[in-house]
Backbone:
């Protein structure tokens, strides 16, 4: 027999007529209703009766209304009203929302398995813009997941669709909190769904807008691949994976996925929150930059995923078995009580198929208010026939037993994390401290220290460089903590590579851990393409990061031969020496060139020689020699005229006054060979 919901047909706040329940989640049920005042259909969310009695859940419920009502975006569900209603189950907080007629993103994923790349990017951009609106108002959603993404219509399932007409409506700001409060570890419990929770929330309980971006990145991975990247047998296993595992690359699953998509996913899901986009608007801009360069044919494609078979009873639940809610009690950490993460699918035990709390968990009044079946005699009768209901006498015992069990578990958890194997201590920051001071600081913090040495370019010798685990992180005091002490800058010997080929020299230097810098130059002695010079020289001891410059020989330098004819031997020799050439010399008589001038060269001007080559030069010895006329016995004037006419110069020497005017001696003597222009000395008596 169908169970009748006691709220159906009720009029709330003299205005809203409840027509049908359309969803049920971990905290609340959602109903379709008619706003009689404005004559429009709306959605009304009622907190569950068993949670309405707990102030913290009611506070969270009202907080959702306040957070969402302050936001104005086409991609966020509008909040119209909020209040407390008197119902057959007692007073229950409610909020009135815009009615979104389409499915949730979760149900569309369950139906289709995955979406095309273009549809994924289009849906994600709307989600990021919605988050950007919240972030700009200082509000962090804190529970971004497909269950909280409503759609105005189903996503087109055709294989060749690169876009969708469905519009995103982000809902459920029940966990939302002002950014100024969420940055602290001491405000309240940190909640979220473990499949989408950011590493910094798990490790430190610290929440910033970047945590929403992380969850959006996980959703993009899920929309593309049909599954979340991290799975496991328990929420603890999944949480560990968020902190320690690298996001799988979709390009390895489907090689048509552009590498830019993996880069975008890596950006959104970076382990360090500081490296992610600062807020939703920055993330949307990053998505746009990548999406613009993706070809249309790839936007049409999708990774074919066979949709999972989901039990009908589970479709309306807020948390699926794969996506339990994560709760980290930071208030307990404040009071030095158990600070361990506690994961639970619901605030209290629930039926995993329907999310309904078992009736025997609460006292009679609460149990009857919690279940619609309490209002149906037929159902109660059927249940009585099927199984016996625990008596009222047994219920206090069961509650006491459960309390004792929970107390024991809490005590065990406290011991495990505060004094047992799960105990963690924050590692002090010791970089740049002297070795004794660093070791003392770590031992005072409670660690056993194992010292190791390493080279460092930045830290002076005998000072601490780092620890493993790093300073600021938490580590078990039961395991030795590694302390690294600097040995200073590492020094290496430069290998000698002179004469080696370029390839051999580069390999030898890199094997010695040097980075070669290559230049080229001429060399008279080193063959072309071999190393002609290096700096520093081979055998020198230098810092490991010092550059080593090697000069690759281009062979001998080609030189253009100058025109040396007519130059003196001295000038020609100076010019050749300056160029890097040398010369050999021979001499010849020349009637046209003065003695000592270059009259010929064996390599013509303009031809090419190479540095160090020798050029042969011919040097003039002056004109050819001729016979000197004999003028002995001739009168002085006749002798002088005869010698000058033959081309000689005359020098007169007088004996006894030279009164006779007759040549008595000459040098060179008549008949001897001498070059024209030679001076002939005549002695006149």
Residues:
């Amino acid at each position: 027999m169908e169970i009748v919901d006691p709220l159906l047909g009720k009029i709330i706040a003299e205005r809203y007529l409840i027509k049908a329940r359309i969803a049920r989640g971990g905290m609340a049920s959602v109903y379709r209703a008619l706003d009689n005042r404005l004559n429009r259909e709306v959605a009304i969310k009622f907190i569950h009766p068993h949670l309405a009695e707990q102030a913290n859940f009611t506070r969270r419920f009202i907080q959702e209304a306040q957070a969402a009502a302050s936001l104005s975006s086409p991609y966020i569900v509008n909040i119209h009203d909020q209040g407390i209603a008197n119902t057959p189950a007692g007073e229950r907080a409610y909020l009135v929302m815009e009615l979104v007629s389409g499915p949730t993103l979760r149900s569309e994923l369950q139906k289709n398995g995955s979406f095309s790349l273009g549809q994924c990017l289009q849906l994600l951009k709307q989600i990021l813009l919605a988050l950007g609106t919240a972030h700009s108002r200082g509000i962090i959603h804190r529970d971004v997941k497909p269950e909280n993404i409503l759609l105005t219509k189903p996503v087109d399932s055709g294989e060749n669709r690169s876009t969708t007409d469905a519009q995103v409506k982000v809902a459920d700001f029940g966990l939302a909190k002002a950014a100024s409060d969420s940055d602290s570890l001491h405000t309240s419990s940190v909640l979220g769904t473990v499949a989408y929770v950011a590493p910094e929330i798990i490790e430190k309980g610290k929440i910033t807008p970047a945590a929403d971006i992380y969850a959006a990145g996980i959703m993009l991975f899920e929309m593309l691949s049909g599954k979340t990247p991290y799975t496991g047998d328990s929420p603890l296993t999944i949480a560990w994976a968020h902190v320690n595992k690298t996001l799988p690359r979709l390009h390895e699953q489907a090689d048509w996925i552009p590498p830019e998509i993996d880069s975008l996913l890596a950006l959104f899901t970076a382990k360090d929150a500081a490296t992610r986009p600062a807020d939703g608007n920055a993330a949307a801009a990053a998505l746009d930059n990548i999406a613009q360069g993706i070809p249309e044919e790839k936007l049409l494609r999708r990774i074919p995923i066979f949709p999972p078979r989901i039990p009908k009873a589970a479709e309306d639940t807020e948390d699926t078995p794969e996506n339990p809610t994560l709760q980290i009690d930071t208030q307990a950490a404040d009071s030095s009580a158990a600070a361990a993460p506690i994961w639970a699918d619901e605030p209290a035990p629930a039926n995993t198929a329907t999310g309904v709390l078992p009736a025997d968990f609460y006292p009679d009044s609460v149990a009857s208010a919690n279940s619609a079946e309490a209002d149906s005699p037929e159902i109660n009768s059927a249940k009585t026939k099927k199984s016996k209901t625990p008596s009222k006498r047994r219920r206090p015992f069961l509650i006491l037993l459960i309390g004792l069990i929970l107390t024991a578990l809490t005590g065990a958890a406290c011991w495990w994390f505060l004094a047992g194997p799960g105990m963690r201590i924050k590692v002090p920051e010791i970089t740049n401290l002297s070795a004794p001071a660093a070791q003392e600081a770590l031992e005072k913090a409670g660690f056993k220290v194992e010292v190791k040495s390493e080279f460092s370019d930045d830290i002076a010798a005998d000072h601490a460089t780092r620890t493993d685990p790093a300073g600021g992180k938490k580590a078990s005091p039961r395991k030795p903590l590694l302390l690294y002490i600097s040995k200073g800058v590492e020094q290496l010997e430069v290998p000698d590579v002179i004469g080696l080929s370029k390839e051999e020299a580069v390999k030898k230097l890199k094997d010695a851990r040097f980075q070669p810098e290559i230049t080229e130059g001429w060399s008279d002695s080193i063959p072309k393409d071999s190393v002609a010079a290096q700096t520093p020289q081979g055998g020198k001891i230098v810092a490991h990061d010092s550059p080593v410059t090697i000069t690759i020989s281009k062979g001998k330098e080609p030189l253009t031969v100058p025109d040396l004819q007519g130059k003196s031997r001295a000038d020609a020799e100076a010019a050749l020496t300056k160029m890097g050439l040398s010369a050999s010399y021979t001499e010849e008589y020349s009637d046209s060139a003065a003695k000592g001038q270059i009259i010929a060269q064996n390599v013509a001007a303009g031809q090419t020689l190479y540095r160090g080559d020798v050029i042969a030069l011919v040097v003039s010895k002056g004109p050819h020699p001729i016979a000197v006329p004999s003028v002995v016995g001739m009168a002085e004037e006749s002798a002088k005229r005869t010698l000058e006419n033959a081309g000689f110069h005359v020098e007169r020497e007088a004996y006894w006054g030279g009164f006779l005017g007759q040549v008595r001696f000459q040098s060179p003597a008549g008949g001897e060979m001498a070059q024209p222009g030679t001076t002939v000395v005549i002695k006149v008596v």
About this structure: DSSP finds 20 helices and 33 strands in the chain. The radius of gyration is 50 Å.
